[in-house]
Specification:
The protein has twelve helices and ten strands. By secondary structure, the protein is an alpha/beta fold. Helix 3 packs across helix 4, helix 7 runs parallel beside helix 8 and helix 11 packs antiparallel against helix 12.
């Protein structure tokens, strides 16, 4: 039981039609719900921390919570920086003990993205840490990363092959139609599977990553709205689309919005139904259970990762 890199996880996933779930964490209850689900399903697991989560919970607290999760469950866990904006934050996370970092240079021009990613790769690899990069832009909001839908561009397969060759990056996040947040599609959901297949064909040994892959499960949206929420029209990536993607090189699927919705829906329900209660444990406990149930569903029925630990 230890913090590990994703190399072996991805190598195994590439040979089969499943993906490793990468779940964003912000506090103890979220971490507990996720790791308890992964333990029960005997699934590989990536816990990822955004810049916003580092600011909210502070790095030392998150590191110790993940260490506690390892001690409690006996799981091997990848601790990953999600959407690192520059070299400095990636370096800090490497130095803090993260086993994986993402450098998101997608806002830069192609050559600048290569140069930045290569700098991070050289430092991380020298310290035994793996690196994820991003090519193409996803619409939506991820902490302080905000990309308007009109400027979102899909990943070019030829550029993807060149990018991997020139940077030595370990995995690549690609843009094929997903987006961050709870409002991923205005009309019919669409993912460019032909583009995905072409990218996988050109770089078959490179694990591919799907960001913005929450399903925005209708039952959680409905429950939030039923108990005072205001998130009408939320729509995510259909689960069958994610299952299809895992058959064509997608080895890591990022999930964050679904965690937030599951937790918030349960807290809203509890506080409305039991207005006299004010003990945080009374509503955070059920919220933790809701996260566990949702993550188990993802691992078993969407990622097909049960028993792959």
């Amino acid at each position: 039981m230890a913090l590990v890199t994703s190399k072996e996880m991805f190598a195994k996933a590439l040979k089969s039609d499943y993906a490793v779930g990468a779940f964003n964490v912000n506090n103890m209850e979220i971490i507990q719900g996720i790791v308890d689900a992964a333990k029960e399903e005997q699934a590989p697991l990536i816990l990822q921390v955004s810049a916003g989560a580092r600011k909210y919970a502070k790095p030392a607290y998150l590191l110790k919570l993940v260490e506690a999760a390892i001690l409690d469950t006996g799981l091997d866990i990848v601790l990953h920086l999600d959407h690192g904006e520059d070299f400095d934050i990636c370096k800090k996370c490497v130095d803090d003990g993260f086993t994986s970092v993402m450098i998101d240079g997608s806002k830069h021009e192609f050559k600048e993205n290569i140069a930045l990613t290569k700098e991070v790769v050289e430092y991380a690899h020298a310290h035994g840490v793996v690196v994820e990069a991003e090519l193409g832009k996803l619409a939506g909001v991820e902490d302080n990363i905000n990309v308007d839908a009109r400027s979102a561009t899909f990943t070019d397969p030829q550029e993807a092959a060149e990018f991997v060759a020139k940077t030595g990056v370990d995995s690549l996040a690609i843009a094929i139609g997903t987006s961050h947040g709870a409002y991923k599609f205005k009309g019919e959901p669409y993912l460019d599977f032909e583009r995905l297949k072409e990218i996988h064909k050109l770089i078959p040994d490179t694990p591919l990553v799907l960001h913005g892959a929450s399903t925005v499960l209708p039952e959680f949206v409905a429950r939030c709205n039923e108990y005072g929420g205001n998130i009408p029209g939320a729509q995510g990536v259909p689960e069958e689309m994610i299952r299809t993607a895992t058959a064509h090189g997608i080895c890591k699927v990022n999930i964050d919005t679904d965690l937030r919705l599951a937790m918030t829906a349960e807290i809203r329900r509890f506080l409305i139904e039991k207005p006299a209660e004010f003990d945080p444990r009374k509503y955070l406990g059920p919220a933790r259970d809701a996260i566990k149930s949702m993550v188990q569903h993802k691992i078993k029925n969407v990622l097909n990762a049960s028993g792959q630990r």
